[in-house]
Amino acid sequence: MRILQFFITRIFLKRWILVLGMIILLFLANYLSFTTARSIISTFQGYQEIETLNKEGTFIANLDPNSEADFDKINIDDTQKVYEYLNKNYTYALQADGFVTSLHNKYEMKVSISYINEEAYKINQFRLSQGNHLNFNYKFNNEKIPVLVGAGLATNYPIGSNIEITDPATQQLVILKVQGVLKENTHRSNFYAPNSKNYFNFSILLPVNEEFIQSAGLDFHVNGLMDIALLDSTEEIAINLKVHIQENLGLEFNFFNQQENFNYFEDYYVYSLKIICTITFILLIIIVCLATWNTLISIRLMIKDFTINLLVGLSYSKLRSIFYRYFGILFSINLVILFVITAFNRYGFWLRKDSIFATYGIFGLISMDWIALLIVLFIDFIIGFTIVELTLRKVKSIPISMGVLK
């Protein structure tokens, strides 16, 4: 322990400003590595989830960003015509998020309602922790609507309980009956950015059928069209819907297959990854050079003390162990800081009552966070190994003799 303390205080920290700079650079490299790794993991998960839509005959709608949309001119009669046309001629998957309601819960979170039709429900294949899956064959205004609730609402609204609310989509008083509970951290990935996710821990999944859509308001109708997915269709038939929407609503929609959405996403995502990876690699090279140079300079400045330790029994194998322990301490400090920042960010969603990003996890971290931390740990191990072995090779080349003690 004394020999480790000697090396830390008299050699490694001889130039503490350089050490502090190295720690800062190491943290930046770790943070960039962590962010990149987590983003790639999230993207991979998104690709797996959306892959069911990546097949021939599926076209996904999105509002043309270059068009000028005048939503004030749209009325409910026009949108109902569009949905009547949809129901008559197409098989489609619809899921509309973003509708918020005030509903008491122990965490005081704002509760979002996610409206989903049967085709979209089949595609998503949501997993339940308890209860039964949704039933879409109910009579609106005549029956209680069967719903699923997120894990965060299960305590206040267990299976079998009734929820009486003014539905945001229809502006009518409805009674919801809890039929099942979604697994923790159930989420939906974005069609156009698979690395982006909305979590349903504080959501109500409400099934919609044709009768519900006819009773819904203008906001629901327009919102539902934004990400609607045509199934078992053709490009020509999709264009017919595009024309029909434009004639009735004045909105210009694009209908792309999911592979086109992936390609569009990859165009800017891969470019961003290349920039981040390049910066991270440069930082790691600087860290290796700085750590090696600083250690060698400190040893040369303390050559007498270093020589005495070699003469009294310090071997190069023990020196290697000291180096690994020292850099292990530095890397551990950085990982702890990274862990604390990540946990605080996750907890921040709970503090801000941001329900679509609030997640459950060990110490607040979800699986992708832990995997990303393990990847950073592996990178640090490689960097530490490189620094120690390179430094030790240079140290062995330093001439050590009794003459340095004179």
Write the layout of secondary structure elements.
Blueprint: H1 2-12, H2 16-50, E1 59-63, H3 76-89, E2 91-93, E3 95-101, E4 111-116, H4 118-124, E5 128-131, E6 145-149, E7 162-166, E8 173-182, E9 187-189, E10 197-199, E11 203-207, H5 210-215, H6 218-226, E12 229-231, H7 235-249, E13 253-256, H8 258-301, H9 303-311, H10 316-351, H11 367-396
Parallel strand pairs: 4-11, 6-8
Antiparallel strand pairs: 1-12, 1-13, 2-12, 3-4, 5-8, 6-11, 7-8, 9-10
Protein name: Peptide ABC transporter permease
Keywords: Membrane, Transmembrane, Transmembrane helix
Organism: Metabacillus malikii
Coarse structural class: alpha+beta
**Tell me about the biggest sheet?**
7 strands, mixed
Task: Tell the overall outline.
Answer: elongated
User: Helical segment tally?
Assistant: 11
Gyration radius, rounded: 30 Å
The overall number of domains is 2
How much strand content do the residues show? 15-25%
